[in-house]
Design goal:
alpha+beta; Nuclear Transport Factor 2, Chain: A; membrane; transmembrane; transmembrane helix
């Protein structure tokens, strides 16, 4: 009978450890994309890694959207305003300028 209580204690211990790991993972993931900056809340809306050196992110800072491109050459940000399709236009302009740089390496 003592092996049943030991088995029950082991199962209970693993259950408690599993729940603790689940809770901590859930808590840290929620905080990962929501930070408090000096001027207000910063939230990552979307992000994409374009290649191993370049990535693009869409942030929301106090209700304003900011499109940011991070590369080895530096960080460039554009604040998106209005309700139009400005994000798509900014993305297309950035792709065109990068394409021109690749085609004309001077």
């Amino acid at each position: 009978m003592s092996y049943m209580t030991t088995l029950f204690q082991v199962v209970l211990l693993f259950g408690a450890l599993g729940y603790g790991a689940y809770y901590m993972t859930k808590k840290t993931r929620k905080q990962q994309f929501f930070k408090q900056g000096e001027n207000g809340h910063i939230q990552v809306k979307d992000g994409v890694y374009l290649n191993h050196q370049t990535s693009a992110f869409l942030f929301e800072v106090d209700g304003k959207q900011v499109f940011t491109v991070i590369s080895n050459n530096g960080v460039q940000s554009v604040q998106l305003t209005g309700t139009g399709n400005q994000f798509q236009q900014a993305l297309e302009d950035a792709v065109k300028s990068e394409t021109k740089k690749v085609e004309d390496p001077s």
